[in-house]
Amino acid sequence: MIEPSLELYGDAYERVDQQLQDLLDTTGVRYGLLVDRNGFVLSHKEALWAPRPPALDSVATLVASNAAATAALANLLGERTFSEQIHQGENGTLYVESVGDQTLLTLIFDASVPLGKVKVYAKKTVTQIAAILDELKDAPTPQLGEDFNKGVNALLDDLLG
Amino acid sequence: MSTINFAAREINCKIVYYGPGMSGKTTNLKHVFSRVPGHLRGDMVSLATEDERTLFFDFLPLDLGTVQGFKTRFHLYTVPGQVFYNASRKLILRGVDGIVFVADSAPDRLRANAESMRNLRENLAEHGIDVREVPIVLQINKRDLPNALPADMIRAVIDPGKELTMFEAMSDKGVGVFETLKTVSRLVLERLSKTR
Predict the structure, then answer these.
(1) Fewer beta carbons below 10 Å: N end or C end of chain B?
(2) Which residues cross the membrane (chain A) (predicted)?
(3) Among residues B55, B104, B102, which one has the least CA distance to residue B80?
(4) Would you say the ipTM is above 0.90?
(5) What distance in Å separates residue A140's CA from the closest CA in chain B?
């Protein structure tokens, strides 16, 4: 398979979380997510003052699908990729930037936050998160354990009959 | 491929419903959405045309619960079945962990079933995935059609080697929907634990 699984371990996870938190504190962004390109949320942070966030699973899936479609468009136009996507509405903005080949930094903020400022700080965050993810390439692969299958089958019986 | 977050103790897997147009892929997801308790599933997202044909995909997140301390979650997707949406189908197969192939029992859809399976093999190959590497379950849908073809005849064109687990279904009535999902889920998680 060409798509490797992505695994975040304790310390790395906390450092990624901290990067997102710092970015939110500095810029006034409402929600920050790290999403993998298969559409799963790896990490998310929200500002203390932010209202209840939208369904993060749906946001991550649509962001990843949009990025995939955008990448396909880039290829059709002779580009390797388009590294960022910006969607601006009347009241808010969705900003997505690639972090390496596997993940997407996703930021949601309202109209009072200057896009230029977000872009400047986001690029620094992208560099730092990319370095953390790069360290994980050499981490050992943990095992799920012998009893994992039994537990899974019991859950499937409960949920699906 | 599955995303495992050891820090957050989460396992996420992606299951894709594939098959020709109008075979009942979205109906499968709608039934799961209607029957699974609200606290175990998220919102269903449908990117459809005005006449409710799937344009890009349908999406439904489903929580299985916690296994050995890992919150285990499935993301269910459908692909658009119509032939001209192949670019979308290809994108949605990215990172797939398991596939439900939904075949149509109508006599005039036999060729469409075969072409869709061939298209699946081609699109998986473009992602570098051998069709034998990924768990696939075959669902023969619309068994209640008055002129439904025999299931064995449909299987003969899709899965001549009889390698896939097969279910007969009537997805609009919910028949066979959960059995299919349970089997593909089990295969996906078995494979995950074997490779670790």
Answers:
(1) C
(2) none
(3) B55
(4) no
(5) 11
Given a contact cutoff of 8 angstroms between Cβ atoms, the answer to whether B179 and B171 are in contact is: no
Pick among 3.40.50.10330, 2.60.40.10, 3.40.50.300, 3.10.180.10: CATH of B3-195 = 3.40.50.300
Across the interface, do A42 and B193 touch by the CB < 8 Å criterion? no
Question: What are the tens digits of pLDDT across the range A65-78?
Answer: 999 999 999 999 99
Q: What is the pLDDT of residues A97-136, one digit of tens each?
A: 999 888 999 999 999 999 999 999 999 999 999 999 888 7
- Rounded to the nearest angstrom, the minimum Cα separation between B144 and chain A is 23
User: Is B8–A6 a contact, with Cβ atoms under 8 angstroms apart?
Assistant: no
CB A108 within 8 A of CB A30: yes
pTM of the full structure: 0.91
For A58, which of B42, B72, B127 is closest by C-beta distance?
B42
Q: Cα separation of B54 and B76, whole Å?
A: 14
